[in-house]
Design a protein that fits this description.
The complex is a heterodimer. Chain A has helices spanning 4-12, 30-50, 56-81, 89-105, 118-147, 159-205, 207-251; strands at residues 20-21, 24-25. Chain A is mostly helical. A two-stranded antiparallel ribbon of chain A has the order 1-2. In chain A, a hairpin with a 2-residue loop joins strand 1 (20-21) and strand 2 (24-25). In chain A, helix 3 (56-81) crosses helix 7 (207-251), helix 4 (89-105) packs antiparallel against helix 7 and helix 5 packs antiparallel against helix 6. The longest helix of chain A has 47 residues, at 159-205. The mean pLDDT of chain A is 89. Chain B has one domain. Chain B is 92% helix and 0% strand. The relative contact order of chain B is 0.03. The model of chain B has no long low-confidence stretch (mean pLDDT 89). Classes of the chains: A mainly alpha, B mainly alpha.
């Protein structure tokens, strides 16, 4: 009998290679190795886009690069943060592509979705959180940034209540970034695996029924894969957009 | 499955380092160049647009000036035409009057000349008659005048007169 949870866990959970350097345990896992590969691919793609060649491919890549950067600037960074967000454009360009490639990598057979690891999404959310705080301090100063946690016109006796609430609100926003991405990518892949497992579970009971179940299950599988493709783009967009909006809220808060 | 919600802090730290390193590397080797190229192109487009707008304004200004000049030229041409027509009419009237006067003068001269010539001719005829009469009288006087010879002489005079006509 197939153990469903174990099978799903095997395909989704990270696996540590257990590499030790002396007494130091290196966090070399399937997800981190995948992340390195994605980073190398991204670096290569980025350099290809920045290269100014005369061949059709070079021109195509540079056009894609300029369109992408233009979209990030005019579609995400400037609407969210205003003109103050321009210096952080590189961060957002990298963030979107990193999340997108990480999400899409999960659709390649034998490659795991690193964004279904809460540590990875948490790290990305932490980077975004640090950026948000940095923006607040850069544009308001330390004291000014702290003051932005108390909305204007708040009665003095409410400040001790409002201030921690606003701080927690910011922390929650950042945490929600991580959880949203993690949950969406994890659930999508769990659904894909569950649909495949249906065929084998029914097949164990009756081979004919299993063969019959394969047809609707594969149909649903294809549908869900298309949906996952959409979700991969959507979640990368949402994460990046929300980061810019949160940073913009901090920059433009009075 | 509990592992799902228990983050591996090693992976967490490595992701942070990896991601920030990637941001820096991509900024240095990719985005900086692309953003620069994009901004240069946008600046060029904006400059071209501004130049086009300026050129358009200049063209409109020149067009307005030309239109104004054209209107002035048209008005001036109409004025000149009117003047030319007026002048032409005046000259025509003058020429007609002159021609009329000249024709009348020529007619009068011709009449006078005809009259003079007529008078001259009459005068000559008269003189001729007188001369012939004198000649006839002389011849009559010189000859022994008979009735017959006188008649012959008169006939001769009349023949000569007819001959001189």
């Amino acid at each position: 009998m197939i153990e469903v949870s174990e099978t799903i866990a095997h395909h989704i959970l990270d696996h540590d290679f257990g590499v030790m350097v002396g007494t130091l345990h290196l966090p070399l896992t399937v997800h981190t190795v995948t992340m390195f590969c994605i980073s190398v691919v991204l670096l290569g793609v980025g350099m290809l886009m920045a290269r100014r060649g005369k061949s059709v491919f070079s021109r195509l890549m540079s056009t894609i690069g300029e369109e992408y950067v233009g979209f990030m600037r005019d579609g995400i960074v400037v609407p969210g943060m205003g003109q103050e967000g321009r210096p952080f454009l590189s961060y957002f360009c990298t963030l979107f592509l990193f999340i997108l490639f990480s999400n899409l990598a999960g659709l390649i057979p034998e490659v795991k979705t690193i964004t279904s690891n809460i540590a990875v999404t948490g790290a990305l959310a932490l980077c975004s959180g640090v950026l948000i705080v940095y923006c607040g301090i850069k544009f308001h100063g330390v004291v000014g940034f702290i003051k932005t946690f108390v909305p204007g016109g708040t009665p003095w006796w409410l400040v001790p209540l409002i201030f921690p609430l606003e701080v927690i609100s910011l922390i929650i926003r950042v945490c929600v970034l991580a959880i949203r991405l993690f949950a969406n990518m994890l659930s999508g892949h769990m659904v894909l695996l569950s649909l495949l497992l249906i065929i084998f579970i029914i097949g164990q009971m009756s081979k004919i029924a299993g063969t019959g179940a394969a047809i609707p299950a594969m149909g649903l599988e294809i549908f869900m894969t298309c949906l996952e493709l959409l979700v991969a783009f959507l979640q990368a967009y949402v994460f990046t957009l929300l980061t810019s909006i949160y940073a913009g809220l901090v920059i433009h808060s009075h | 499955m509990d592992q799902l919600l228990n983050p591996n802090f090693g992976v967490f730290a490595l992701t942070v380092v990896n991601f920030l390193l990637l941001v820096w590397l991509l900024h240095k080797f990719a985005w900086k160049g692309i953003i620069g190229a994009l901004e240069r192109r946008e600046k060029q487009i904006a400059d071209d647009k501004a130049a086009a707008a300026t050129a358009r304004e200049e063209a409109q200004q020149i067009k307005a000036e030309l239109d104004a000049k054209l209107q002035n030229i048209a008005a001036e041409a109409a004025k000149k035409m009117q003047e030319a027509v007026t002048l032409g009419n005046a000259q025509k009237e003058q020429l007609l009057a002159q021609t009329q006067q000249q024709a009348e003068r020529l007619l009068a001269q011709a009449k006078e000349q005809i009259e003079a010539e007529k008078n001259q001719a009459l005068k000559e005829v008269r003189e001729q008659i007188v001369n012939t009469s004198l000649l006839a009288a002389e011849k009559i006087t010189r000859q022994q005048v008979t009735q017959q010879t006188a008649q012959n002489t008169v006939d001769e005079v009349l023949r000569e007169l007819n001959t001189h006509k």
